[in-house]
Queue: 3 jobs
Job 1
Amino acid sequence: MIKEDTLKKVLYIDLSKKKFWAEERNDLFSQFIGGTGVAIKLLHENCDYDADPFSPNMPIVFAIGPLNGIFPIASKTVALFKSLHTGNLGESHAGGRSAIAIRMAGYGAIVIKGKSERPCYIAIHGDKVYFKDATILWGLKEGISVGAIIRKQEPGAGLRTIMRIGPAGEKMITYSSVTLETYRHFGRLGLGAVFGSKNLKGIIISGKRDLKVTDFKAYKELYLNLLKQLAESEKMKKYHELGTSANVMPLVFCKGIPIKNLTASELEEVENISGESLAEKHLGRRVACSHCPVACIHLATLRKPYEDEPYFYRTVYLSYDYELIYALGTMLGITSSEGVLSLIEVVEEMGVDAISMGVVLAWCTEAFEKGIINEKMTGGVIPQWGDVNTYSTLIKKIVFDEGEFYTDLRKGIDYVSSKYGGKEFALTYGKNEMPGYHTGYGAHIGYLFGARHSHLDNAGYAIDNEAMIKHFDEEQLAEKLLTEECWRQILSSLIICFFGRAIYTPEVVLNCLRLTGYELDEEKLYQIGKKIFAEKYRFKIKSGFDFEKLQLPQRIFELPSGIGPLNPDFAQKIINLLKEKIKSLL
């Protein structure tokens, strides 16, 4: 048990009226643990399902869980909102110092509604909330310096987090992101656009308090055991050494990495952008989120000349991982490590989701080759596979150019392919762009049915890895996807970084929860996970989601996956089973 715990306190902020208040919500945290579970209930309570995601009264919900600040690698914050990108549930997780800062400030969740009449940022310092003018920060050509300016203006150095948007969020690009602590993001599904719609440039949160456990001896024993496993276990080795970029070459080998909009199975010199090669040539240092011993954040150094001073150079630190290497590398036919890092820098400056942007650029390249779009539409820009400079130009045009085609690209490729054509090679799932795994049925159907259409929902790619050596029928595949997703609702309610999922087994989770005041068993835990998953789908359906409109991209059946060619009929059987299984939970 935690003494004098403030986890169950929810902070409500009204940007329109410049008001704030806090409420004790024991009901939510007792039933739904925290994190995703509490956030989805708060989203239901505060959301007008029929309203546009950019309506002033649409909420942003941040939530943490009972293990944040107590146990190692419980380092994430969950954000839930209505996404203009898909029209229904927006969910994104971020690390950095966000979870620690929210807990130290004295809250378990924050609900933000309304719209400021002028650009602002919110400063939350413990039980005080301030609404600060951000007019001078609005319109900056890149978002990185915004954090530095807020950092100098505000107190609370140390356990504080600074969230902010870049130009893409101001333009309300539907796949714009929110940056935290320079190297972490609420990336997918457009939280940055929701910030922009509220004239909210950023949020700073700080606080200082003690978290005291009642049974310190049992706590210390469990804590040290977890710390040892996270630091030394073989299960965590790749995150320590190379990060997720370790996935590049294994996926190249099994032909599970998407290349050039899934038009090819091989890419010459792809080893140049492997995790091993990036570490050897560019790795500058590793950093970690607060209260995490793993340090999976690998920072590359990129040496760049000043544009107006060619004999002077600057060194830029850039965070890279597998998804960025896929989206801004293999997906675009780029095998230069410097090229991939250069595009990462542009994406960071603009404040857009790297995965969606990479898939958008890949679609543009193939659409140009097929004559669906032309130079008149692109303003003379000709996208070509492997052309780093042109892709850099295109990213900036999508953010700043007010021409019709670029304005349309701000809505993602589901929208542009519906308007211009090229739907047959548009790699989207429930309107969200494809993550970096062409590994088999598990990955693709997992994206389609995941509550937020993400590889992180159910790790279907891991099921495909099993399927390489063991056959699963459609019932087994459907059940595995659903079971994993329901369990992940628990991890994201605690809220644990998914990289630590092999360490935080159900038994470990139950032991941690007992020390924080929850008396549950494994069956009850899983039932809570199913209930949270069902609440997410209820939100989606009330927001207009329709199971019958779900469709896999045609392209995935044209190029063999990591487990070989995919059969549309077999895939449809799994889809039908999952529809019925999910409907039975509602």
Note: The domain at 2-213 is CATH 3.60.9.10 (Aldehyde Ferredoxin Oxidoreductase;  A, domain 1).
Job 2
Amino acid sequence: MRRSTLATPSLLLLGFVAAAASLSACASPDPYGDALRMDLNRVVLYRSGVGYFERTGKTDSDTLRIKCRKDQVDDILKSLTIVDRSSGQAVSVSMPLDPQSWANAALATLAPGQGNIASVMDALRGTTVTLTTRRGDATGRILMVELIEDVQEGVEKSDYRVSLLDGDEIHVVMLGDVKSLTFHDQELAMQLNRSLDASAGEGMFQQVEVMVKLSGKDTHDLQLSYVVSAPMWKPTYRVVLPEDPKGKALLQGWAVVDNTSGEDWADVKLSLTSGAPIAFRYDLHSPRDISRPDMSSRGSSKRAAVAMGETTIAPEAALAMAPPPPAPSAPREEMARRADKKSKSRPMPKTAGGAGGGAGRGGYAFDDDMAADEMMEAEEKMDSGIDMEALARSTATQTRAKRVSGLTQFDLGSRVTVPDGSSTMVAILNTPVEAEQVFLFRPGGAGSGYENNPYRVVRFDNATPFVLEPGPISIYAGGSFVGEGISETIATNTRATIPFAVEPAIVVTGAVTSNATDNNLVKIQQGTLTVERFSRQVTTWTIRGPRQDADYKVLIRQSRLGGAYAIKDAPKATEELPDAYLLPVEVPAGKTEVTFEVIEQTPVRTTISIYSGEATRLLDTLLAVDNLDASARAKLKPIVERRKEIADIDTKISNLRERKQELDQRADQTRQNLEAIKKDPAATALRSRLSKKLEDFTKEGDLLGRQIVELTSQRLEKKIELDEALEKFSFETPETPKK
């Protein structure tokens, strides 16, 4: 067996993976060494757990050394871009692999408490090693490491099969038989030892370094951008309710931003994006080979024909994407008019960040500067409670909002500094909205002890072109806090319903009954009648509460029955949810109790023969329909008349058969009586009377039998006529006009 030491193979992708982890999570003060200092310039945070980071810097060197975390390698591979800002062109880079990078690639498979020697060996494919086993040594380049599972004597056993390529031979060794492993690349073994020393206790947060070779001119003005995992920003809202049940409320929004990147965000441009962008992890650093068929022998004798190109004129609308909608101008409501009168006075001081800062006006915000005396006036009002007008003027949003590929992006108007391991709050929303206070009853009530009580809710319309992300909402009214709720995602042009308190003075109860309607004729097709009936569930809601001086509204959230069930005659203002209905019930002033009935029904269709007993009634009902036009009535009337004639004959036959059956029973009883007294000499007169009765019964029965036969013959003739008329007859019942 030959023993040779081979040079480390150049695995470009593996080296890049091992070295190019999160640029945002560098722990050292200068992660780029002496070659280049890349300043963090811009951060965009998303709600999908990722962040976009942008860095800039200049260098006269042709080498860029980057230290970064290896737990975010795949994100870097998906998104890393290096652009020369002077030319606007992407920079061509090469990343030579060194033993240190390769060693780190192997160690990257061993997170704390995870991994095994098989994972390390698989990461070092191509490396020349010697495996010492009980049966001897095996030397070669690591080709692959495969998991082998087997069942022996009912016991599951697993092991790894290691394939070594030695020249033109492949040696197969079971890892369970290996006693020791020897690296032929001594520098690689040394670097593995050094990496283990450096990474002890650090796990996936260990930093690695990659050296990027820059091509082209000597001086480079670079911009690096990439997407890596980052904490999602968290929204929180505040709603100040109007004094009236309906009117303008104040909606404010704040974003809580966390910096856990491992470095300070010093004087950076910060943007926050809402919506539902898709983000995921994807393993790009593990080599994946797919076997391919060898097609070398095919197509060698074929020659492609020259084809002329074609052009088409595309619609103008398809040549470019529609521009994003312009940001709405700042609202100018009554609550801000007093600030307009003194807008030329000294502006409100600006802050670099935090709640209530005034940096970066414009976009979706109140943008009026306030004079100092107005600030004092607002503060005086705030001292006595949460005043809507003062609060609207004193809080200026720090962002400008715009639409980006269907997402909402809030850009801060001024740069911010967020130290590592800290959080900050940014005002993103400050606008009046249409709102109302109502009550909402959900099945089960408002919680333990409140099973029959509704919630107090605030409903407001998101008339902005932006999506409001889920978050807590604090509710204020009458100058103080009155409750809080939490929202799901509130899409644009939708209405939010936010429960914030329980109303124990109102009691809601419900009772459910089920029934079904009579059959209704829908269609006649060649003697077959399609009939429809409705299965119904009726829910009766009763609302009881104290007498009020004004009307109030209770929304009842009733779950859908599913299937084909639908509400019959739903109230005009009913709102449909994915799994329920919101049914508005108005309680008039002075009333203490209101009953409201909800009917859910689903049609059930069956088919019957025109000769069935129910068909005659259905046809008579159909002829009585008011909206049946004259031509349809004329077409249908002969069919109905023939069917009624047959029905009359059926009635007569039924009556005759019933009479004949009764006579037959009496005749049988008379025969039994005659048999009982036939040997009694004293019963001569009785036998005579019974014999006469039996004769009369027999004659009458024979007459009834002849009538039945005659009527049956008549029925057959009329049925043949009706069948011939129905052979090509088709009719559909006209729909009843809706009221």
Note: The longest helix spans residues 630-677.
Job 3
Amino acid sequence: MAVSVPALVLPGEGLAAVSEEIVVTIRRRAENVQDVPVSVTAFQADFIEKQGVVSTKDVVKLVPGVQFDQGFSAADTRISIRGINNSRGRGSVAMLVDGVDISGENVTAGGGGSLLNMRLFELEQIEVIKGPQSALYGRNAFAGALNYITKAPNTENYEFKIGGDVAEYDTYNVRGAVSGPIGDQFAWRLNIAAYNTDGYWNNNETGQPVNNFGQPIDAGNTQKLNGSESNGARLAMLWMPNGNVDVNASVTYAKNESDPRAVARVAVADVFYDSDGNILPGVTMPQFSAFSNQAYGQWLGTVTSVAESEVMLSNTGNGGEFAGSEDELWFGTLKIESRIGGMTFKSLTSYLDNDATLQEDAEFQNGIGTIFMGVGLSVANDYQDTTTTKQFTQDFILQSNSWDRGFWLIGAQYFTEDVQNQDFSLGWYNDPATSFALPCGTNPFEISCSYAEAQAGGVPPKDTDRDTDSASLYGMIGYDFTEKFSATLELRYVRDEVTVTTNTLIDRVSQYLLHVPIDLDFGGGSPAPLPASDKQTTNEVNGRFALDYKFTDAFMLYGSVAKGTKPGGFGTSQFAVPQSSRMEPETLWAYEIGIKSMWFDESLRANAAIFYNDYTDRQVGVTITDPITNWPAAGIVNAAGAETSGLELELAWSATDNLTLALGYAYTDAEWTDFNYSNIRLTGPTDKDKAICGNVEGNCSGAPIAGIPENALTLVFDYVGPIGGQGLQWFLNASAQFEDERAVADQINTAYVDSYWRSDAQLGLQNESWSVMVFATNLFDDDTVTWGQHYNDFKDGMYGGANGGEPRDETIMAFLPEPRIVGVRASYRFGGQ
């Protein structure tokens, strides 16, 4: 288990006493965290504010065993828990807001989702739950869940609160709240927030006047990177017509804009392999021959730090800067709760509408790439798309509230999601003639050189529509055999139906291999009728069974077994037609044994757990021969198996009335047990498969799972001391996080990002009404790269080959971390209580 840091119950009390009860709601009812046979980490309101937690990234860094990684854009964000991550399909971790799952699935970034980056409004509590929660929360809680509980309207008194941060890099974060009753039956709460930072890094692409053929390219790009801006508001209303009925309604608006990230190519390939996967000794340059097999190269090693001068994004093909990403979100909920005798009926309705745009550099060069026999990478291979996501969820729940032998609930849920994506990027907006030094527009396909020119000329984008309908029945029963011995059973039956439709037969693989969009339907015919559509329907039963025994009120032993499934669907990130990208469900069996205990007059909380996960049918992206076009294309198979196991420890100690210390540790062993390309591909492993696995079979079994550190540690120190009288206090709060090195790719011969330490601290003054502090994130300005991405080397790794221009070599793109940021944070409140 990770650190469960108690709240600042009132300013001036420091971290709450360890003995104070922490109530969590992850099992859809209020329970003491020490009585729940599930690994739960809870953060409460004042601690959240003091730490400056405004995003999921801020939460996850305090929880060992949980990773938050972002690729090139906000749309390529994913979370892993206990070694369970994903590269295709829906995310593995559900993101819940007041019990409503708003997790999404990106169309063009496999396994990613931009909603995980949403900035958070005023929160009462955050709960991080480890292990499958598919029985209670459905399709996205495959590896666990994050539950954000917003502050409810004040039904007793009016309260006002304002706060803000001012920091380096022109950073500010302003927030305010007002709440109170309206008569005896109504109450309301309004939150507003605004955030901005100008970015930490500069791009350093100084321009290349002409390409290899003397054609003008660009004058450079020195834009700011890693900046962001966010504005939003939330209005919540509570109606209490009588003592047995509560009606809660809320509406949230948020607009988030993010600049492109500072990313640098670490190195060109430095190790090359022959067609059997053997290392070629002494080879410093790629070996290849025209229209035949080539040596395959990749970069191996450990990324430590990267200088800002190495960040060189290109431009948009028409000389502009990249806009980055933008999300505009509307989210509404309606919750009705009625207490009838010994039961409670709940209805939870939600609607989400999110519009996202993205414009990123996809190949980090302008003009033509490596030239071989007149063939090279064409211009403006930049990335631009728009995505509209609409979600509707309806939950009905009936549960006990007075059964003396335990508790029970039954529920029904309907979920629908409509996602529409338009992709304006990649090769179909490039002119193949540029590969042969011909002017733009002088080729028989009449395709423009950039997406801006293409849109003006009426060239259609790639349209992808994904419709999801999900219906489930679920239930839970907890039964107390004795006062000490209890059992819990959770079950859910879910039926998912996913339909994908597209207007073209093009895919990224054939774009980069062939340079020519031979399968676009521009009125000249197509190998198959368009639009192309396919449907995938899956039926699954998921569950959890747990036993717990309370030896004393302060010591509990528990064990559980749970099954989670990630639903089937379509891997739309690189696909040509839906039929070639079908994915069957993934399955996870999770086993856990743990203890929850209090010691020394409840001044020390000591919790621990050991776990084992058996992960099968992993969705893997491969290159296939498209059955319609007969060209190489991107495909998906369910072919891999993995195991993760580990130990988690949580200690929180009230050492004195003024000092609280906490420690969280996670050891995770995560590796592939079945990842053999000889079984994945009917035609046998490719040269690339053999190279990345390092053997002639193309067998990567035994490789580490990318992105998972073996050891992770969090330390928290909090001291509060009085200054004279009048309730004035000073405080020092500090935290430190350590993560081991992590593999960047799922292969035996792989690259890593290095281990690192990060520290944050706050020093300030407070009383019951206000607080002011100086804070620093990344206190010691550690510049170790914390994450990177395995990527095609489009600049120096493109060779002729059998089809021309194949991306034979791969490299690591490293994301520069945030530097040290120092600022001032203050808040003031009155009323309430």
Note: Helices lie at 45-51, 56-60, 134-137, 451-456, 508-514, 677-680, 687-693.
